[in-house]
Amino acid sequence: MNLDKVMTAKAEAERFLERANEGMKALQKNQRQWDIWSVAYDDDKKTGGHTISSISSGRASLPEVAALRRASMDLTRALADLRKSP
Q1: pLDDT average, residue stretch 76-86
Q2: pLDDT > 80? residue 79
Q3: Which tens digits make up the pLDDT trace of 34-76?
Q4: 23 touches 64 (CB < 8 A)
Q5: Where in the sequence is the domain holding 12, given as residue range(s)?
Q6: pTM metric for this prediction
Q7: HEC profile of 16-81
């Protein structure tokens, strides 16, 4: 195995773990907001009001989730390169 590739894979793994922690915190925060919004939306529908016309959870568009996906792809590539090295 090539030492550079091992170091690269280790760095990518550490980066992925950092992004995973950030992503989990963002998703938990977003879930709490989504729960509040969905209750408000349900209440609005019951009373016949139209104060909340559309609600999107935005889970797919969180910057922390995008960074986590990118870190996951980078880690996958680094591990593949590591496996290919002699």
Answers
A1: 92
A2: yes
A3: 666 666 555 555 555 444 444 444 445 678 888 999 999 999 9
A4: yes
A5: 3-84
A6: 0.69
A7: HHHHHHHHHHHHHHHHHHHHHHHHHHHHHHHHCCCCCCCCCCCHHHCHHHHHHHHHHHHHHHHHHH
CB 16 within 8 A of CB 71: yes
41 Cβ contact list (under 8 Å, min separation 6): 52, 55
Residues 6+ apart with CB under 8 A from 79: 9, 12
Using CA atoms, how far apart are residues 38 and 58, in angstroms rounded to an integer? 13
Look at residue 84 and give its three-state secondary structure.
helix
Q: Which residues contact 5 (CB under 8 A, 6 or more apart)?
A: 78, 81, 82, 85
d(Cα 26, Cα 21) in Å, to the nearest integer? 9
- Say if CB 61 and CB 68 are below 8 A apart: no
- Number of domains present in the structure of the chain: 1
